[in-house]
């Protein structure tokens, strides 16, 4: 569960429109499990 929590927060951070480091992600985000 820790991995899912960390990934969820990382995705939210990347989709943040206020992020200064790079343009935010948008649309559908897909993720495959190992």
Task: Give structural notes.
The protein has 34 residues and is an all-alpha fold. It has one domain (1-28). Helix content is 38%, strand content 0%. It has 1 helix and no strands. It has one helix at 2-14. The longest helix has 13 residues, at 2-14. The relative contact order is 0.17.
Strand fraction equals under 5%
Number of domains: 1
**Which parts are unreliable, with pLDDT below 50 for 5 consecutive residues or more?**
none
Question: How many β-strands, per DSSP?
Answer: 0
Secondary structure layout:
Elements: H1 2-14
Q: Which terms would index this structure?
A:
34 residues; mainly alpha; 1 helix; 38% helix
Brief write-up:
By secondary structure, this protein is an all-alpha fold. The protein contains 1 helix and no strands.
